[in-house]
Amino acid sequence: MPSRRRKPRSIGSLRQALGPRYDLEALWEKHTLYEFGTRDVDATMRTMVAEPYVNHVPTMTGGVGHRDLARFYAHHFIPRCPADFKLVPVSRTIGPDLLVDEMVVSFTHDVEIDWMLPGIPPTGRRVEIPVVAIVNFRGDKLYHEHIYWDQASVLAQLGLLDAKALPVAGAETAKKLLDETRPSNSLMKRWAESSPTKSGDARHAP
């Protein structure tokens, strides 16, 4: 059975030839400015379609439809972002109706963050994590956002999870994303076993 899924390349070709053309990057920048800069719920919602949805995948927080999403932004997201919440861009990919942002998010856990750490009182600790946002547009409005991060890393940095007993890293994940020269495989205890200086020839290591 043939797939009915739209092919972005075809959409892009049509829009390039016929229009309309939208500056998705500027639309996304405006949306995040209203979320984290001016912290304006109404302005944030105006950047979105009539019935949008947002899903923070690790915690399943967000909302589907204007009413629930506006409620989420007004009571559980915008006023529940730490005062020093910061986004550092790493990479951005833009298609005809899709934008993917890779970034590092950092903050001090100085407020109960309903959307990321529901029910966890402020610890006062710092958190630094890689985050990926997949944003879909309809025309010149945001349609949906899927946001991903490593929840285990967040919990470890807040002292809520014993990273020493599990293959989990803290702020190191963000630091390595920004600097690829940092050591790899630090969680792999067997990594040293394959060292040529230790095993003679790493190519023959099991």
List keywords for this structure.
7 helices, 206 residues, single chain, 6 strands, Nuclear Transport Factor 2, Chain: A, alpha+beta, globular, 6-stranded mixed beta sheet, disordered N terminus
- The gross shape turns out to be globular
Number of helices: 7
Kindly give the count of domains: 1
Q: Between the first and last Cα atoms, what is the distance in angstroms?
A: 44 Å
How do the SSEs run, as a string of H and E?
HHHEEHEEEEHHH
The count of DSSP E runs of length 2 or more, i.e. the number of strands, is 6
Question: In CATH's first tier, which class applies?
Answer: Alpha Beta
How does CATH name the architecture? Roll
Low-confidence stretches: 1-5
Across the major sheet, the strand order is: 2-1-6-5-4-3
| CATH fold annotation | Nuclear Transport Factor 2, Chain: A
What does this protein structure show overall?
- Helix content is 30%, strand content 27%.
- The N terminus is likely disordered.
- It contains seven helices and six strands.
- The chain is globular.
- The protein has one domain: Nuclear Transport Factor 2, Chain: A.
- Strand 3 and strand 4 form a beta hairpin.
- By secondary structure, it is of the alpha+beta class.
- The longest helix has 14 residues.
- Strands 2-1-6-5-4-3 form a six-stranded mixed β-sheet, sandwiched between helices.
